Amino acid sequence: xxxxxxxxxxxxxxxxKHGSSLGKMFGKESLVYQxxxxxxxxxxxxxxxxxxxxxxxxxxxxxxxxNWDPSGKGRPxxxxxxxxxxxxxxxxxLAEQALERLKKML
Length: 106
Hints:
Strand content: 25-35%
Strand order of the largest sheet: 1-2-3-4-6-5
Distance between the termini: 33 Å
Shape: globular
Number of domains: 1
Number of helices: 3
CATH architecture: 2-Layer Sandwich
Largest sheet: 6 strands, antiparallel
CATH class: Alpha Beta
Number of strands: 6
Helix content: 25-40%
Oligomer: single chain
CATH topology: Yope Regulator, Chain: A
């Protein structure tokens, strides 16, 4: 399965399960819940809004992951983690975790 297919499958499952939808954030494809993006898809990676504290805990588990810099100008976002496709088996659970965090913030 390609990275895009993995992302779309997760997006479809999240929509059915939680009522989220496909949308855009910073011009990048994303999943949206009540107008707020919680994961995004960019450069063959899925990006999750996990929060800075959680990223500190999980980042080492995903070699090649990094805080997401949507502008590409050296300004990574502290709450967003870009996870390579090689870890796509964890993408769905990371998306669930990102959604749970978002729901607590709403």
